[in-house]
Amino acid sequence: MGLRIRAARADDAAALDDICIRTGHAGGDATDLYAHPELLADVYLRPYLVLSPDLAFVVANDDDVPLGYVVGVADTAAFEAACEERWWPLVRERHPQGSAEPGSRDAALVQLVHEPRRTDPDVAARFPAHLHVDLLPVAQGGGHGRALLERLFAALRERDVPGVHLGVGAANARARAFYHHLGFTTLEEDDGGALLGLRLDAGRG
């Protein structure tokens, strides 16, 4: 099976939603863990496709069907402000406070929709970009994840972005090892996971 990296397109939306949900539990399938699994895409995928479509890339098979993706933004602070103005109000209408069973995974995501986390300004200053990357098992290995990230890093360097950060859950040790192998370092850590950062301007004059 030949896989290639290309820019994401509007007609990829349904396939990317599916990938987001099928990798939403520490890289495993989250479909049966949520009453409304589309909440995962509302939080971790769709706002990037709407607000930062030029930094979305997919790995596709011979039939041009996406099997993985990376989405990112060059300016996290600006993205978070845009989400508050243009994205979260729409999602809040679909998923109002109290609409999910208390204590459920859905409830935790609804809470995120209504009270989004804001990135520490010090982190955003040093590592202004951030990303989310997900690949189905069939696309894992073979360097496809690294190729996706390198495509995004190249696009960020073209914009003179000095650094990028991402979060990784405590249960996803494999992903954390992968990011460290790429050169990411740990910026913050707690029981829920870690925040990792990578300088993109290293070695530049």
- The CATH superfamily bears the name Gcn5-related N-acetyltransferase (GNAT)
Give me the CATH fold name. Answer: Aminopeptidase
Q: How many strands, what sense, and barrel or not for the largest sheet?
A: 7 strands, mixed
Shape, principal axes of CA atoms: globular
Average predicted confidence as pLDDT: 94
Number of helices: 8
Alpha carbon gap, first and last residue: 41 Å
Number of strands: 7
CATH class: Alpha Beta
Order of SSEs: EHHHEEHHHEHEHEE
Low-confidence stretches: none
Please estimate the helix content: 40-55%
Strands side by side in the biggest sheet: 1-2-3-4-5-7-6
What does this structure look like?
- With 205 residues, this protein is an alpha+beta fold.
- The protein has a single domain (4-199), classed as Aminopeptidase.
- Helix content is 40%, strand content 21%.
- The protein contains 8 helices and 7 strands.
- The chain has helices spanning 13-22, 38-44, 46-51, 76-94, 105-114, 121-126, 144-158, 173-182, and strands at 4-7, 56-60, 66-73, 129-135, 163-169, 185-190, 193-199.
- Strands 1-2-3-4-5-7-6 form a 7-stranded mixed beta sheet, with helices on both faces.
- The longest helix is centred in the middle third of the chain and has 19 residues, at 76-94.
- The model has no long low-confidence stretch (mean pLDDT 94).
